[in-house]
UniProtKB/TrEMBL annotation:
<protein>
    <recommendedName>
        <fullName>DNA polymerase IV</fullName>
        <ecNumber>2.7.7.7</ecNumber>
    </recommendedName>
</protein>
<dbReference type="InterPro" id="IPR022880">
    <property type="entry name" value="DNApol_IV"/>
</dbReference>
<keyword id="KW-0238">DNA-binding</keyword>
<dbReference type="Pfam" id="PF00817">
    <property type="entry name" value="IMS"/>
</dbReference>
<dbReference type="InterPro" id="IPR043128">
    <property type="entry name" value="Rev_trsase/Diguanyl_cyclase"/>
</dbReference>
<dbReference type="GO" id="GO:0003684">
    <property type="term" value="F:damaged DNA binding"/>
</dbReference>
<keyword id="KW-0227">DNA damage</keyword>
<dbReference type="InterPro" id="IPR001126">
    <property type="entry name" value="UmuC"/>
</dbReference>
<feature type="region of interest" description="Disordered">
    <location>
        <begin position="411"/>
        <end position="444"/>
    </location>
</feature>
<dbReference type="InterPro" id="IPR043502">
    <property type="entry name" value="DNA/RNA_pol_sf"/>
</dbReference>
<keyword id="KW-0515">Mutator protein</keyword>
<keyword id="KW-0239">DNA-directed DNA polymerase</keyword>
<dbReference type="GO" id="GO:0006281">
    <property type="term" value="P:DNA repair"/>
</dbReference>
<feature type="binding site">
    <location>
        <position position="105"/>
    </location>
    <ligand>
        <name>Mg(2+)</name>
    </ligand>
</feature>
<dbReference type="GO" id="GO:0000287">
    <property type="term" value="F:magnesium ion binding"/>
</dbReference>
<feature type="active site">
    <location>
        <position position="106"/>
    </location>
</feature>
<keyword id="KW-0808">Transferase</keyword>
Length: 444
């Protein structure tokens, strides 16, 4: 463990919901829930105003509506989230070359690799305060909670202690005092099942866990998990902040305006995506052992499945066959809005034939697939739209042949509401010119 509090963890507050409030002036200061809006939907993120009513991530949308019926329930706008995330990650990399993103909205930063005069507590705190201010300015008002500590574990725990828009510093030597009163669930990997197993053994807090020897922990939760719990309960964490410079996977995915229900069509799309992935692998002289698929259902729930080969491959037929097999295990009867195929566990070689010869790849023609388009356009709550006369806005609600739009943007005041026939030719969905383009560089 370090002798300086030079590991920083930054976590954007209620990220999806905060981006929606930023871009929709009429929702600022009001409860917002982002996720699946249907009866079987799941909450992805809830604003702090909604959390006061007990709404939480991973809660069913049905329960969230019962707890906070006056909230705005919106589907996600991933182009906006990716853009905001890119700005923040750029800011972090301007401070240190060692930035380890955990997701779109959080990352570790190693200040020991930054160009700082020293790693004294006051210096690290000043960097953290400056970062929070720069994030707020560069993203148009988003806030971040930051933790500073001597390890990744302590920094991540600290960032959660003063939310939203807070900074918590854990000075060297105080880590165990901080952890002892906390529940064991604060430790990564202690989910409901492990917590219940520990509770039955009389272990509920980190202080309780600290009194248990390694042999007993291994008996309770297994060797690997027990060893990790033993060290983390004592604030012992030597993991490095690792900046991912090399691609660890190659993937292709597609999002569809109309939910897919035809299993044959989904298999065809996966096969074509597998072909694109395999082509990229071959182009860069790579192969991979693990094939995975990503499926986002109609209710915003995202599922992932993977399978690992005994040796790496760059074969279209092999990747496609495994992807279709993974799809077969999923219930997609309610409709699918996103499909993706990926290959990870990359290598720069292919397993040769046992007799020292390589064989030609099994040829599998890529199917011609046509994604159906709905004759009546789909208007999802929260989606960006544009009207030829009124300009930019977002979908307030839709149904029974009518779509209601509030015309406002992040740069405007709260705007007017208008309703139109849902096939009005003057109204269209709005998308950035290139949703995957790199966000502009953050201000210095």
């Amino acid at each position: 463990m370090r002798t300086s509090a030079s590991v920083l963890h930054l976590d954007l507050d209620a990220f999806f919901a905060s981006v929606e409030q930023r871009d929709k002036p009429s929702l600022r200061g009001k409860p917002v829930v982002v996720g699946g809006v249907g009866g079987r939907g799941v909450v992805a993120t809830a604003s702090y105003e909604a959390r006061k009513y007990g709404v939480r991530s991973a809660m069913s949308t049905r329960e969230a509506r019962s707890r906070c019926p006056h909230a705005a329930f919106l589907t996600g706008r991933f182009h906006a989230y990716r853009e905001a995330s890119a700005i923040v990650m750029g800011l972090l990399r301007s401070v240190s070359p060692l930035v380890e993103p955990l997701s779109l909205d959080e990352a570790f930063v190693d200040l020991a690799a930054a160009d700082l005069p020293d790693l004294e507590l006051a210096t690290c705190v000043a960097v953290a305060e400056d970062l929070r201010a720069r994030v707020h300015e560069a993203t148009g008002g988003l806030t971040a909670s930051v933790g500073l500590g001597t390890s990744k574990f302590i920094a991540k725990v600290a960032s959660d202690l003063d939310k939203p828009d807070g900074l918590t510093v854990v000075p060297p030597g105080t880590e165990r005092d901080l952890l002892r009163p906390m529940l064991v669930t604060v430790i990564p990997g202690v989910g409901p099942a492990t917590a219940e197993r520990l509770r039955r053994a009389g272990i509920q807090t980190v202080a309780d866990l600290e009194l248990v020897d390694l042999e007993e922990l291994v008996r309770l939760v297994g060797k690997a998990h027990g060893n990790g719990l033993f060290h983390l309960a004592r604030a012992q964490d030597d993991r490095l902040v690792v900046a991912e410079r090399e691609a660890k996977s190659v993937s292709v995915e597609g999002t569809y305006d109309t939910d897919l229900t035809d299993r044959k069509l989904m298999e065809g799309l996966l096969t074509r995506q597998a072909g694109e992935v395999a082509e990229r692998l071959r182009k860069h002289g790579l192969s991979g052992r693990t094939v995975s698929i990503k499926v986002r259902l109609h209710d915003f729930t995202t599922l992932s499945r993977s399978s690992t080969l005994s040796s790496p491959t760059d074969s279209t037929a092999t990747v496609a066959r495994m992807a279709r097999g993974l799809l077969a295990d999923l219930d997609t009867s309610g409709g699918v809005r996103l499909l993706g195929v990926g290959v990870s566990g990359l290598a720069d070689w292919i397993q040769e034939d046992l007799f020292g010869e390589t064989t030609e790849e099994e040829v599998e023609p890529l199917p011609e697939v046509e994604v159906p388009s709905s004759r009546r356009r789909t208007w999802s709550p929260g989606m960006d739209v544009e009207h030829t006369t009124m300009g930019r806005g977002w979908v307030w609600g839709a149904g029974r042949g009518v779509v209601t739009v509030r015309f406002e943007t992040a740069a405007s005041a709260s705007g007017p509401v208008r309703s139109y026939p849902d096939d009005d030719p003057e109204l269209s969905a709005w998308r950035p010119a290139d949703p995957d383009e790199t966000a502009p560089a953050p201000p210095a």
